[in-house]
## 1
Amino acid sequence: MRHRPEWSVAGFAPIGRSRVAVRPESARAGRLGTGGSCRVALRPGSCRGGGDRRRRSYTCPVTVPPPIVAPSILAADFAHLADEVRAVEGAADWLHVDVMDNHFVPNLTIGLPVVQSLRAATELPFDVHLMIEDPRRWAPGYADAGAYNVTFHAEACDDPVALAKDLRSAGAKAGLAIDRDTPIEPYLDLLPSFDTLLIMTIKAGFGGQRFIPQLLEKVRAARRHVAAGHLELRIEVDGGIAADTIEQAAAAGADAFVAGTAVYGADDPAEAVRRLRALAERATSGA
Ligand SMILES: O=C(CO)[C@H](O)[C@H](O)COP(=O)(O)O
């Protein structure tokens, strides 16, 4: 089912307009424009009704929006958060904000007051990733605080569709996150209720972990489902995304990339963002 007709003007590129990788300039202001898409080559057996299954890989008629990069402030210096955010302004598409409660994950980060303060410090759209229990209680507060996209974990919520509706009613995009050990299949049919799907490429809880390539099978499954249903949904990957991993994630069908260590561990965080985006574009534009 198609929904959210404001999609393309509120920060998401539409799917399937062309097969040329384009990065609209407006993306820097959080509006990703309306032009352009890329192709991804899915593996044999992944196309419905097409392709030569004897070949090792081939290109399906699957298009994805231009890639976006969301630096994760989990890897930033918490004593200078506003400065760290400004260091990626003009380069990043979204700012990824990891909220952890020390219950859903064994780590404790920041909460609503910090998000409210940061909101006043930057124009970057906030991509809030809630790694918390009881998201129905807390998530709408982040939408009210001005978060652009609020993502909660499927494992923590017994009625994800209801919460997605609440978030949209509060003016935010709604995101569903899938942790390392959670299969994606039970959630595919819920995707029309969501604007983003975040697939963990590590176990949620800590930055700086090693990327797990096997988890890209979930990305491929999601991309096939999104393409088959003509859904307008960003597929985001989070965990261990860096120069040596982003291309495989993009080729699998991801179009939004969270990167903490690879951005804030770099000498020039803005340049690191630009390089990651260029690599993701390269991985899909030639497919
Ligand atoms: O959600 C997260 C951890 O649960 C972080 O966003 C993720 O780990 C990003 O950090 P890095 O790029 O260093 O892996």
Note: The radius of gyration is 17 Å.
## 2
Amino acid sequence: MPQIRIGTRASPLAVWQAEHVRDALYAAHPGIQVEIIRMTTSGDILLDAPLHSLGGKGLFVKEIEEALLAEHVDVAVHSMKDVPAQQPEGLEIAAIMAREDVRDAFVSNSVVHPEQLKPGARVGSSSLRRRAQLLQHYPHLQVDDLRGNVATRLRKLDEGQYEAIILAVAGLKRLQLGARISTALPVEQSLPAVGQGAVGIEIRSEDTQTRALLQALIDPATQQCVLAERSMNRILGGDCRLPVAALAEWRGQSMYLRGLVASPDGARLLRAEADGADPVVLGQTVAEQLLAQGAAAIIKEIQSQ
Ligand SMILES: NCc1[nH]cc(CCC(=O)O)c1CC(=O)O
């Protein structure tokens, strides 16, 4: 009987994702043995520093990838949003599963919608992408850093440190916290992160046996969309500290990809869109449109900070 060891971060959302993969493996391959190995990463330990000053989200992923390369585990389960554009030598994303709701959630205990917040109200988010888009629509708000796992962020809101916070709808729903969502922000207002809402499974490239077992877990529609978003991101520099957003969706036989690059203060917001059936070409097309509008200068400015 095949046996698979799943490596995951120890946060409740990461463990939910690992169990989701385990359950899908059980369903697809009756009799398979699956073990979940939880790891605490330095990204989880250094929860007080702003994420974008710590080398970004790659931090959460890197140590699990090391365990994968060392063959301590056979697969690593990630939120695709946290996976850098390029995998290390010898590793690859072998499967992307069906996507949850892609939107960002506005969560508040005092108001239902961001437009109801008073000037200067504090909104918590460490994401430059969320900050820039929120400030573009609601320039009267103040966006402050907010770190920690989903439960920690909600606790900081409940303690009154913020009037509202922004989180992913997907994470809240997966943790049965959907009732905390005040408003799911339309993607026209808050275009999601590349890969948001999708769970991805990484393997060693040479591990053909595990790759074959994971075939059954692939959701082809989601996988193509996330590939298109990641193709755009790779050309733009692929650094998760950047305020870059993208969303690909199927419209009939082709995908429709929207992309965005923002300056962190929300003053400049570049947008592009295209449709096509080849995810790599589609990502390139939208990235080139953003570059033609001056995206490189914004990206360079942020990287030099
Ligand atoms: N950066 C943390 C992270 N990584 C993935 C999710 C949510 C679930 C997802 O998008 O798949 C979250 C939390 C959040 O942004 O609220």
Note: Residues 12-28 form the longest helix (17 residues).
